[in-house]
What we know:
Keywords: Membrane, Transmembrane, Transmembrane helix. The chain has 28 helices and 22 strands.
Amino acid sequence: MSFWKIYFLESDMGNYKQDKIAREWKKHWDKLEDEKDHRLSPPQIEKHLSEDRLRFGDNPSEEGLLREVAQIPEDMHLQEMAQLVLNDRMAQSAVDEDPYRGNYPGPGEMEAPEDFCRIGTMGNGVPLGFSASTAIENIGIFGRSGAGKTCLVKVIVALLVLIGFRIIIFARKRREYDDLAALPPLQDKSTILPYRQVKYALTEPPPGVPRREWDNDWIDSFGHNYGRYYAQRLLQEVFKKPRRPETLRQAVKALKSYGQGYSPVVAKYRESIQYSIASFLDSVGDITDYKSSNMLSRMFEKPGLTVIEMEGLSQEPYSSLSTYPARWLYMKRQYQKGSACQPPVLFVWEDATLGMDRSKDRNNPQGTSPLAELSFMGRRYRQECLFVGHHLRSVSPKILSNVHNIFILGLPGENPREISQLLGTDKDQTDLARVLGPGELLALSPSIWPEPVYGTFDRLNLPSRLSDQERQKRIDKFLSKVDARKASGVQTSEGEEKRGGEKGKTKRQGKEISSEQRKLLLVAATNPERSLTGLYSSSDLSRRKGAKTVKKLEKNGLATRHRFSTGGRGGRVTLLEVTDHGWERLKKMGVDRPDPMTAGGWEHQLGARLIQQEGRKRKFKVDFEVDLGPVQMDVKWRSKQGQIQFFNIGISRVPRESKNALKAVQLPAVKEGKFTLVCRDTKFRKKVSKKLKKLDPDGNRTGDIELKIIADFLNSN
């Protein structure tokens, strides 16, 4: 037991002086014992001297000091000196254990250019960053969720805006960059736009660009964003017509009459285009229903920051809307010279993981995705891209080969080979890339230093986010400078957000339906003769998913099912009718209802359509509603040799259809050809056959009547 404890126990606790002395002794012995705890004992010194990582053998004087302390451990002055030497050695060892220690520039080896943008510090204390001039050669940031990718983007964006860049950020989350826009140096240079408030004139060429060149470019780009589901060549033909459409909605109307009577392949192309455009318009609303707009000219005229929030958009419309401004600027600068390439522009795809996928290259006819094409096409005109992704394993090689500045913020699940090939690292360096913590990164910027390095990046001291009033104030200020004119006769897309009231709350017109319902509804509208199984297949839906989607369409009053008996194997076929309410929904998507062929209902129209398709397949001329006096024929075929065949379509009234059929075969025009009564199904045909026998017992006229059912034409088509 220590002295102070013995004294304290034996002292008179009531004596104040003795208590005070005891407390003083306690402090003294606490200090001595604390110093004793921190002294280097001889075994500890021998252990440190034997550690190779501390390398005491390189400095005999330091080794001699520690050995002297081992002999006289109670000398506090020697102990203090030994502690300083040991701490210095351990700190140097920590640096030497960095697998990137051989990659760092030595003193005076790295000369920072005048446009150097510092974003952090290397592992050896040297500033870390990139050259603003090489930012034109693209930037790639890759890391797991929560690694700090958005924080690093904000640092880069703030630096580039302050040195004269125009930054366009396509954000996938709302209010993600409100705090950056509130940064005092950027307050007067920043605008945040929800995508519903942009005003694009897709078909209007940039200043100085020939109309034909622009049509080819934007149609090609739009088609590539939809990959295999789009046939842009047919749409290009539509825009070559003298009466050129002004908007995508008008293009859909022009497509309605284009290709009528052509091969089924052309019909499939037309269906593909209609689906692509309808899907796009249904997602983005009426923001592209303008025949002229100077929004992009205003956006690119001077340095600053514009954030376009695209929350909730699926990949295809997101990619189409985000690549359009980049293509517009590229074409504009391609046809202009001199100061037209000012200011330099950086496009930021805040989450480009899906858009950078190498499958996008395979799915495009030219083997290059829209983002991959943008990664190398804009350098000459001072356009750059900043791609942000969650991993490397599926990123297009064409994009990676065109990214000059690369920052890795931790990829724990990544294939080591992907990291090694991208950065040129060895095994230990690659392993570090998989265990980086928040704020740490690996950087490769060859224009500054040719080797990959480890470091930490700075974080901005950002203020609170913009208030709703401040956001709207900036939006109104920007839109007040925009001159946009809507095309005549366009319809407002469903889901358009309209501002109302003092707070500008949004209201949605109509009930939202899912993308599966929209797609199935469109396919059913353009292919009424297709069975439910065929509709599921064309809509990329499983049988179970398709059945649920059909039930939802019926519940919403958008479609209804019709069952027809076939008389063959399987017994019946089910078709889907788009209701009037469904056609109203499709019209808002840019799809018009076809003109009726006959005066009957949907099943009557279906029969007329099937007879028309069969006639055109046989190279016959097809006419509808042919008046022969006592009887009006629904459809007429006429061959090139002059052969004629008439059709009536019977749906509901057996006596009426039977009597009209008997009247028809007595007409001179019909006697020269053939007459066919197309019945709804086998049940209706049996009733008609029974009625004809009753009306014509001898069978003199009944023998000239051919009875068929709608399913016969379904099978032939």
